[in-house]
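Hi everyone, sorry if this is the wrong subforum. Our group has a chain we'd like a structural model of before ordering constructs, and none of us has done structure prediction before. Sequence below.
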Amino acid sequence: MIEYPFIPYRSARLAESEMLRRGRELYEELARRRSVRHFSPDPVSRELIELAIETASTAPSGAHRQPWKFVAIGDAEIKRRIREAAEIEERASYENRMSDEWLQALAPLGTDWHKPYLETVPWIVVVFEETYGVGPAGERIKNFYVKESVGIACGLFIVALHRMGLATLTHTPSPMGFLSEILGQPENERPYILFPIGYPADDARVPDLRRKSLAEVAAWH
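Answer:
Right subforum, don't worry. Here is the predicted structure as tokens:
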């Protein structure tokens, strides 16, 4: 069993005016964030992706198991294979699996099964959830709150990318088993979400969406 030493933790207590300034600045920046489906092929340095992954890995996790793996793909051939496999599953979903209610909900967003951006973007990052850990002798190590932990890490990953001026999209083709096969991930790692990452295309367009207000998403007691 790992035993962590406990160390002092002190953070600067800021004036409330400074706290509000920082909070508003972050909110205003993230309020401009949009999911993008039209990307530029312009290159993005690996260092930026590495930094975003490191930022994501500061996320809290159940029992500090950190049950995530970020797999970054810049190879054109692998991106092609991912696109082809994703489009097979997405076409089957749009034509046979999705309910009419689901299709109607997606219609205003203009999405369909075509995913050309998976080859256009300089990077794809696939996040895998580690359903259990593997010890030095090959024994299984239980992970806790896996989906919650990975979800938080993915949220921080999105924030990091946006903060650096990059665009992305949360893509979850279903089923996603083809990603494990293409990328050769071990059986204890399950695909969780796929992020195409790059700069928005010069002619990129996004739906003019309205986010719910504070009153709609919060309750106070």
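For your construct planning: The longest strand covers residues 189-198. Helices lie at 16-31, 46-56, 76-97, 100-106, 117-120, 146-163, 177-183, 214-217.
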